[in-house]
């Protein structure tokens, strides 16, 4: 007998989630092949593994998708062979894609402002990597960092007054995480230890998901307590759900009891998304579509 299709409301692995998480979408990239034959596919999927939608596909690379606060727009970078990465925005309602950043150099790690009017991103258009702010209505662009070091991976705070990002300005090749305040134009370090990168703040501002060494991790900012989720085998960070109570990360080697997305529970294989409850409940994995390498999940409304 054919099993019924799971839904975001009836799946036992997601039934306990807040509605803001359960009814949201996770965008992620799946890679197949290598070198000049690499094919990257951008999908969105529900947290219970249902409703997988193909958003874009290219022979080349897709990097760092990022949802707008309302979950209607998805920004990401796309790089065709022998071309530089360009930033596109996908509109979920109209299913259209628009090219928004096509500057010479590597244009990566887009992040929407909470009101959806601005986009932060990093670019090497000026030589080394710096962070830029674009007004989406007319494309007006402002360069926010001007250091000779590498400033990348900006991510807006939910109040729009600051953003976190990665910089190796103290020691080349040893990145740290900083918070840039728009009111002062100054950045202060976020207290962390060792090699850290790719930060993302929770909507309530209490937690930060990031890459801690080689592990996907989440920090409680008020206490500095760090929860190391897993060494993913991909050097990928964790990303937080809209409520901030769950984290998602990709892995080559999922070993969790729950499995959704077309395969039986308990299967163990690589190329999965793992969803982990930060409140101490179950973790489970969502299968990749075609057995490829899963990267860069981001959970939106």
Automatic annotation (TrEMBL):
<dbReference type="InterPro" id="IPR011659">
    <property type="entry name" value="WD40"/>
</dbReference>
<protein>
    <recommendedName>
        <fullName>WD40-like Beta Propeller Repeat</fullName>
    </recommendedName>
</protein>
<dbReference type="InterPro" id="IPR011042">
    <property type="entry name" value="6-blade_b-propeller_TolB-like"/>
</dbReference>
<comment type="similarity">
    <text>Belongs to the TolB family.</text>
</comment>
<dbReference type="Pfam" id="PF07676">
    <property type="entry name" value="PD40"/>
</dbReference>
């Amino acid at each position: 007998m054919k099993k019924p299709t799971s839904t975001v409301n009836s799946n036992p692995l997601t039934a306990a989630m807040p509605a803001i998480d359960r009814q949201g979408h996770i965008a992620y990239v799946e890679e197949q092949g290598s070198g000049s034959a690499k094919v990257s596919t951008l999908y969105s999927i529900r947290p219970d593994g249902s409703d997988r939608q193909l958003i874009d596909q290219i022979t080349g690379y897709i990097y760092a998708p990022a949802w707008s606060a309302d979950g209607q727009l998805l920004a990401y970078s796309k790089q065709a062979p022998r071309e530089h990465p360009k930033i596109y925005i996908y509109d979920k309602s109209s299913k259209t894609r628009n090219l928004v950043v096509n500057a010479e150099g590597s244009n990566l790690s887009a992040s929407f402002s909470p009101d959806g009017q601005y986009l932060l991103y990093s670019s090497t258009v000026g030589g080394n990597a710096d962070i830029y702010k674009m007004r989406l209505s007319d494309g007006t662009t402002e360069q926010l960092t001007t250091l000779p070091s590498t400033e990348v991976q900006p991510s807006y705070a939910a109040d729009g007054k600051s953003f976190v990002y990665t910089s190796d300005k103290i020691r080349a090749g040893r990145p740290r995480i900083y918070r840039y305040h728009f009111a002062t134009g100054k950045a202060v370090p976020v207290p962390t230890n060792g090699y850290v990168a790719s930060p993302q703040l929770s909507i309530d501002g209490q937690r930060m998901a990031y890459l801690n060494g080689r592990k996907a991790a989440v920090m409680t900012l008020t206490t500095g307590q760090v929860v190391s989720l897993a060494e993913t085998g991909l050097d990928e960070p964790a990303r937080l759900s809209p409520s901030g109570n769950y984290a998602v990360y990709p892995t080559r080697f999922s070993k969790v009891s729950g499995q959704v997305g077309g395969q039986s529970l308990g299967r163990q294989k690589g190329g999965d998304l793992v969803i982990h409850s930060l409140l101490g409940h179950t973790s489970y994995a969502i299968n990749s579509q075609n057995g490829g390498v899963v990267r860069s999940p981001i959970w939106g409304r």
